[in-house]
């Protein structure tokens, strides 16, 4: 199913359709402030495993990232010291992924790696979905090195490719091609391990 939602003013009825699919363990493809991404209810282990299997992600070796709607709920899922919180506050919402130690609120699938990526994108659609779902949403880009650029940026072509896997593809306009900048804050340092979109303000 392809659903059109506008970033400036997300339609509540359409958002609720997406939330209902996520509550049922569904997979959605949604826009962020960087790339289009696969997502599911981050606390639904079966749905998380389905996305990991598709992408060839081993949760024991790779960081899983979750989207929160704002900074107020981050401490529920990750341990944040004061300097890191201040850094996040200066840069979020924005195109950044902060890697932090996990807390006990996340399911076991996140705990073997002991860290989790935290995203608060500058995109109203996915943040509104997270608010109405009441849980964070797993986030991993749909990018495939073999894809032509249109198949990662054009929602209609994204839907054409992934309609058998994703329950819903959200058309939030043409997507970007640059991933988020990743900052590892898990050791108390703030190391940029991938420079992507956005310049981090220290």
- CATH topology tier name: DHBP synthase
The helix tally amounts to 8
State the helical fraction.
Answer: 25-40%
Would you list the SSEs in sequence order as H and E?
A: EHEEHEHHEHEHEHHEEE
CATH architectural category: Alpha-Beta Complex
**Spans with pLDDT under 50 lasting ≥5 residues?**
none
What is the CATH homologous superfamily assignment?
Answer: DHBP synthase
**How many DSSP E strands?**
10
**Mean pLDDT level:** 95
How many domains make up the coordinates? 1
What class would the helix/strand composition place it in?
alpha/beta
Largest sheet: 10 strands, mixed
Distance between the termini: 41 Å
Strand order of the largest sheet: 1-8-2-3-7-4-6-5-9-10
Strand content: 15-25%
- Supply Rg: 16 Å
CATH hierarchy class name: Alpha Beta
Per the principal axes of the C-alpha atoms, what is the gross shape? globular
Organism: Fermentimonas caenicola
Domain YrdC-like: 12-198
GO molecular function: double-stranded RNA binding
InterPro entries: DHBP_synth_RibB-like_a/b_dom, Sua5-like_dom, SUA5_domain
Give an overview of the whole structure.
- Helix 1 (12-23) crosses helix 6.
- With 202 residues, the protein is α/β, with parallel strands linked by helices.
- The protein has helices at 12-23, 45-55, 74-77, 82-91, 108-111, 124-133, 150-153, 155-162; strands at 2-4, 28-30, 37-39, 65-67, 96-101, 115-119, 137-141, 168-171, 181-184, 191-194.
- The chain has a ten-stranded mixed sheet, sandwiched between helices.
- It has one domain (2-194): DHBP synthase.
- It is 31% helix and 20% strand.
- The model has no long low-confidence stretch (mean pLDDT 95).
- Strand 9 (181-184) and strand 10 (191-194) form a beta hairpin.
- InterPro entries: DHBP_synth_RibB-like_a/b_dom, Sua5-like_dom, SUA5_domain.
- This is Sua5/YciO/YrdC/YwlC family protein.
- It comes from Fermentimonas caenicola.
- GO terms for molecular function: double-stranded RNA binding.
- It holds the Pfam family Sua5_yciO_yrdC.
């Amino acid at each position: 199913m392809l659903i059109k939602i506008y970033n400036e003013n997300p339609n509540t009825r359409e958002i609720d359709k997406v939330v209902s699919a996520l509550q049922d363990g569904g997979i959605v493809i949604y826009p962020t402030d960087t790339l289009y991404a696969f997502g599911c209810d981050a606390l639904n282990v079966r749905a998380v495993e389905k996305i990991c299997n598709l992408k060839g992600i081993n949760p024991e070796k790779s960081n899983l990232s979750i989207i929160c709607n704002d900074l107020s709920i981050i401490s529920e899922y990750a341990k944040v010291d004061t300097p890191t919180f201040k850094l996040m506050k200066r840069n979020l919402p924005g195109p950044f992924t902060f890697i932090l130690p996990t807390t006990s609120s996340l399911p076991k699938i996140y705990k073997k790696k002991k860290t989790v990526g935290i995203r608060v994108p500058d995109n109203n659609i996915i943040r509104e979905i997270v608010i109405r779902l009441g849980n964070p949403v797993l986030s991993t880009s749909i990018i495939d090195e073999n894809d032509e650029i249109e198949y990662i940026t054009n929602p209609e072509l994204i839907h054409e490719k992934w309609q058998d896997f994703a329950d819903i593809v959200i058309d939030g306009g043409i997507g970007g091609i640059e991933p988020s900048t990743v900052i590892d804050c898990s050791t108390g340092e703030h190391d940029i391990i991938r420079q992507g979109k956005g310049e981090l303000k220290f």
